[in-house]
């Protein structure tokens, strides 16, 4: 898969593996009045019909800067 967004540099690439989907992309991140390009490794895991867990790791020059974990729940 490929995708685009206003803050993504170039094109995001994605692939699915079983119940998981992985996006890799470079994000133009505004910091203190300037823009820094950082890399994202973004994994989404479908737990069941209602729940997806998302884990995204941000890095620069191969150094991990941070990680975020989210869960999405579809209402019944």
**Roughly how many Å is the radius of gyration?**
14 Å
Query: Strands of the largest sheet, in order across it?
Result: 1-2-3-4-5-6
Output mean pLDDT. 97
- Residue windows where pLDDT falls under 50 for at least 5 positions: none
SS summary, helix count: 0
| Helix content class | under 10%
Shape: elongated
Secondary structural class: mainly beta
What's the story with the biggest beta sheet? Answer: 6 strands, antiparallel
Termini separation (Å)?
29 Å
Strand element count: 6
Walk me through what this model shows.
Helices cover 0% and strands 76% of the residues. It has strands at 2-3, 8-17, 20-31, 34-46, 51-60, 63-73. A six-stranded antiparallel beta sheet has the order 1-2-3-4-5-6, with no helix packed on it. The radius of gyration is 14 Å and the shape is elongated. The protein starts with a strand and ends with a strand.
Would you kindly provide a brief summary of this structure?
The protein is mainly beta and about 80 residues long. Helix content is about 0%, strand content about 75%.
